Amino acid sequence: MFNNHKQSGRTRVNWKNDSKKTKKTHVQQKKMNVTAMDKLYGLQEQFLKDGMNTLEYKNYVQEKVNNNKYYYRKLSEEDVSKLQQRYRRLVQEKDNKVNERIEQNKRNKRQKVLFRAKKKKVVDKQKSEMIQQLFKIMAETKAQGVNRRAGELSNDPENWKETKKLLFTGGRYLEKADKDWREVYQKIVSPVTAHLFDKHSHVTLNEYVMNMN
To answer: Would residue 120 count as lying in a domain?
Structure first.
């Protein structure tokens, strides 16, 4: 005869106890042995950020040694020398990076100046050719109120503000015949310089100029 009770046929698993048998409940951290030199190396990084130079650091260390401060009292002459050499190297590396950034900024500024000069030359040439093209169309157009002797005017982009005042007699509506010169004229007077090159933005124009030989 078997005794039946309310727990019969049931299996209960104690997961906590089971886990102890199969795996560790925690990972024990290894303790790092931090030496006095490690502490002082860490301080060097802060001194470097604060702008302390090599001479100031040398005097600082010597003062700490003389005053028998905690992390400095057991330093040997070799340890002091290591600290000074390491700090000198850190300062030199920092100075090199600063100088490199300065030189890079100079190169970038020079490249910007050269690019602006190149872009102006390209734009002026294109605008001059477009103005000359406009003069030619206006000389041949049948539209009224247009100066057909515009070819006698200057096609220098620097003089355009004055030149465009002499192109039309004014006092009339645009006609169908005006279409010939209007398209070129609109490109010249557009506030978007890129339109001179049939481009749609300053970005695409800059890319076009950069890719030119």
So the answer is: yes
